[in-house]
Design goal:
Structural class: mainly alpha
Number of helices: 9
Number of strands: 0
Length: about 210
């Protein structure tokens, strides 16, 4: 057992770099939660996390680099979360419904991150990482297409082009979540997506079932 006077563990340079990077991204998300994506500025981020301007530029290049890095971190986290729910589902109906409920549950659990994803997509699409965005979206879509294809061949889902399936399944829940995130319940905004969790999942299955 370490003695009372033992020095605290020392982080490796790589760990320290990763921690600093995450601190900057956390600060950027806090700025966006307070004032939208336009509130993500170098000065605002620096004030929240204490990082030097040099450190911020070293990790991300500029303000747009921060926004893009945060977007992709959240995008990939969301994709992994939904994919895990899909992988755990037993059967095609359960899988389709898991796509919807996995996405919905992630949004409800992390509304600030989900809101940033919606708000910042246009800025990322218009920036230098446009090819990265196209590639990430293509990879996620192709993973869903690959999942649907054997079920289509087996006759378990409608005989439609599989590239159409993700839009049929995910379109309604994404639309509702976006509207919910953009509103304010106190001012007459939409109820939480959890209110319609079962209905959205059932509607997704009915849209593609054979």
């Amino acid at each position: 057992m370490a003695s009372r006077n033992s020095p605290p563990p020392v982080s490796s340079p790589a760990e320290a770099t990763a921690d600093r990077r995450q601190d900057i991204l956390n600060a950027a998300l806090a700025c966006a939660a307070e004032g939208g994506v336009d509130a993500v500025t170098i000065d605002g981020v620096r004030a929240r996390c204490g990082a030097s301007v040099g450190s911020i530029y070293h990790h991300f290049g500029n303000r747009d680099g921060i926004v893009a890095a945060l977007f992709f971190d959240i995008f990939h986290d969301q994709s992994r979360s939904v994919q895990a729910q899909l992988d755990a589902a037993q059967g095609v109906e359960a899988g389709v419904q898991a796509l919807v409920t996995g996405y919905l549950d992630w949004v409800v659990a992390q509304p600030e991150r989900a809101r940033f994803l919606f708000q910042s997509r246009g800025a990322v699409a218009a920036g230098p990482r446009t090819p990265d965005l196209a590639d990430a979206a293509h990879r996620r879509n192709q993973a869903l297409v690959a999942w649907f294809e054997p079920h289509r061949r087996a006759g378990a889902v409608r005989d439609l082009p599989c590239e159409l399936m993700p839009s049929l399944v995910m379109g309604p829940v994404q639309s509702y979540c976006r509207a919910w995130l953009s509103g304010n319940v106190a001012q007459g905004g939409l109820p939480s997506p959890t209110t319609y969790r079962a209905e959205l999942a059932d509607a997704a299955w009915r849209s593609v079932k054979a």
